[in-house]
Design brief:
Blueprint: E1 4-12, H1 18-34, E2 38-41, H2 48-56, E3 59-62, E4 75-77, H3 85-92, E5 97-99, H4 103-117, E6 121-125, H5 131-137, E7 145-148, H6 151-156, E8 165-169, H7 175-188, H8 202-215, E9 220-224, H9 230-241, E10 247-250, H10 258-261, E11 266-271, H11 277-288, E12 291-299
Parallel strand pairs: 1-11, 1-12, 2-3, 2-4, 4-5, 6-7, 6-8, 9-10, 9-11
Length: about 325
């Protein structure tokens, strides 16, 4: 098996997006500025490797603010965004906070508030219990927003009040799934208001497009990322739906399935927006031990987006 040739198609762009880069940077800069420990509410981004490396330099991760033992220490809100009740609670507890919400998620929050002010009833297309969805729904009073998770929800939905309907979406959905749901809603409610600019973020869209471009050429497709990372799980679905049935998520506890790969000529690799490139390199070096690799990077677009760090950390 040691001389078996294997071609690798490496999807690009892959891995960290600007929002994830910014969130990780905010934790590091907060530790530099305030000393350690700093607290982080929820995983800053959905990746064990990232969380563990930040723990090592002085970040303590909590699920809720009441778990913070030393209220004099600052807390950072994760990139997924938080309900309005969370900053309010931090102020009540006199805890200094730094908000690492991705600017593209904040844009959806503002959109929701504006639509609500204009008197619309809002439908959020997204996955129940995902922190981003909890954060977005938590921008508004309960009765003014409903969650639509799938086509079936869209088909069954009936208006609850006389208000005009508007929809917004989670930023990390499958572009194709979201389109299907949106089509059902538009058919059912022709005057539903849609976002001026799509809510699904550039990074999600680009990573899915890159996977689509190469999936059908691959015998197997691997996405490096965490099980609770929405965008990573979507990439696996995208690969399956676009010509590569044998697509798998490689997470922190995964064993590299060398026996399956041994039957392949071409393997595709991508990584979720919260997965560091070092994990891709690690995966490839595991393959190098068993195969002679030919690696081709397939780039569909160059990403050069960066987001500013909050001024108070500079």
């Amino acid at each position: 098996m040691s001389n078996k040739n294997l071609k690798i198609l490496l999807a690009s762009p892959r891995g960290f997006c600007a929002g994830v880069d910014r969130a990780i940077e905010i934790v590091k800069k907060s530790i530099n500025k305030f000393g350690s420990p700093v607290y982080v509410r929820h995983e800053i981004v959905h990746n064990k490797h990232v969380v563990d490396s930040l723990k090592k330099i002085g970040a303590i991760f909590v699920e809720e603010l009441e778990e913070i033992k030393d209220k004099t220490r600052p807390v950072i809100f994760s990139a997924h965004g938080v309900p309005k009740s969370v900053p309010k609670e931090a102020s009540n507890l006199n805890i200094t906070y730094v908000d690492a919400t991705c600017p593209l998620v904040s844009k959806v929050h503002r959109e929701a508030e504006n639509l609500n002010k204009k008197g619309s009833h809002i439908l959020l297309i997204g996955h129940k219990n995902h922190p981003e969805v909890i954060g977005t729904m938590g921008q508004l009073p309960n009765e003014s927003i409903d969650l639509i998770e799938n086509v079936e929800d869209a088909q069954k939905y009936s208006k609850k009040n006389g208000k005009k309907l508007a929809y917004i979406t989670q930023t990390t959905l499958s572009v194709d799934d979201a389109r299907e749901i949106i089509n059902v809603l538009k058919k059912k409610f022709p005057d539903i208001n849609e976002p001026k600019k799509e809510d699904i973020c550039y990074a999600t869209t680009n990573r899915q497009s890159a996977v689509k471009k190469i999936a059908k050429k691959c015998d197997m497709f691997f996405v490096i990322g965490s099980r609770n990372s929405s965008n990573s799980v979507r990439l696996v679905e995208v690969a399956k739906n676009n010509g590569c049935d044998k697509s798998e998520l490689i997470h922190s506890e995964s064993k590299v399935p060398l026996d399956k790969i041994a039957n392949c000529k071409t393997v595709g690799i991508s990584s979720g927006a919260s997965a560091p490139e070092i994990l891709v390199e690690k995966f490839i070096s595991e393959l190098k031990k068993e195969f002679t690799l030919e690696i081709e990077e397939v780039e569909i677009i160059k990403e050069n987006i960066t987001f500013k760090i909050p001024g108070k950390l500079n």
